[in-house]
Here is the input.
Amino acid sequence: MTEGAGIRTGNLPEDLTAAEAGMWQAFRNGSVYDLRDGDADVDDPHGTVAWGPERTVRARIVAWLLLDGPPALPGRVSALKLAGVLISGTLDLAGGTIVPYVELQGCRFEKEVLLPEARFTTVRLVDCSVPRLEAARLQTEGDLHLPRCRFHGGVRLTDAHIGTDLLLNQAVVHQDRRGRSITGDGLTVGQDLQAEMLESYGELSLRSATVGVSLSLRGARLVNPYARPALNAPQLTVERTLYLTPAGLGNPLLTSGVTPARGTRMQRFECRGGIRLDDGRFGDAVDLEQARFVLEDDQELSLRRVQTPELRFLGERPERGKVVLSGARIVILVDRWTSWPGPGNLHMGGFTYENLVPLDAFPLARRLEWVSAATAEYNPEPYERLATVLRNSGEDVDAREVLLAKQRRRRETLPLAAKLWGYAQDWTVAYGYRPGRAAVWMAVLWAAASIAFSHAGHPPVNKDSHPEWNSSLFALDLLLPVVDLGQAGQWQLSDAWQWLSTAMILVGWILATTVAAGATRLLRRR
Here is the structure.
């Protein structure tokens, strides 16, 4: 066969098989070339039933049609639309410019598909079996659709540029020789990247990828039992929302994002392996509602330095592994206390948020446990951040409780003497956050001392000039270290009464000092 023969006239090349001749004519007509026989088991592209030569076309002929195919019939637009076809050999379109529309449905590829640096308008592979897709630096003006496809040796989309949408819904992707399922480092998607109910076995890598609208992994299942994360996407940029949420199982015509009807069976997002979203930028939100994370002890759900207006941390509590929010900047944190891991498995150093929107019951005691879980060693920052957020929302009482908890946590790190002084401040005025407690202590001690001193012997120091004995004023004069009521120095006490008066003076100084320390802390905070 002479390459290019009959191209200008549209005549059929001489050595085409019957299947290839039919494909050639369908291409010129822009119609679907369907070789399915109607038996679901036979037509299953992922099944074990072999397809014979009557359903087989050579990859070289497919490439010929796409790169330098015959003209369309009058009044028609040429397009490659195949259904139920086996493509033998390696389909190599590397570096080519493909103008015709391409849609393959329920097809099998015998060998890998090579599309690096190729240019397309729109490409749709639907429910196809592909050994491997190699498409680094691929460019499309429109969509790249790969729904329900199965890739046995991975997908490579490094530095690819997709003009509108990238669809991987219900695709099944196994790892390549390097342990990656999908390699999309530097990928750019003009609009949505939808990978709902995706099954990924290996590392899904989206380092420095950019998505123009939303990235949806609703109902996806990511599995990587190896050292690398199951989702590795540092410096990911999503202009709107990242969805790691459930998907409704049912009507396939429902568009992404439609709320499923009540009673619809749901499939949760599940990740068996680490997730790395460090330094990500998300324009609207990161949504983890009902997400399930199955981590090993050395794996992390890492959100270091993430920036987003809203984080919906509403998934299932990880039994193992760590959740890291160090340096993240959030405007609104929506969460449940049942979603956060326990002590030692939560890290929030430098984590800032401006508003808290707890779902279900999230009492302050639980919130303090949340902060404590993030500070295996004492760190004032999480307490102060929580107190600031509560104060800004008008919850001053809760804010004071948080700061009191901070002082109590700090006390455990102090040497013995400072710790004892801390207990004194706590018992008396609660580190200045409950100043009314000092008045209660003062009133109780004053009343008890007044009654006790009413039975004490009290010879005057100066028999010629002394005030009238008043046990209540005497007790109050001892308790108030600065104010002189003219009683404490006028009477001689002996034995146990002298020790009691000395103790009253010491207690008075302790109360005064703790009140002063608490007031200073209160003024400094304001």
Summary: The radius of gyration is 37 Å. The chain has ten helices and 43 strands.
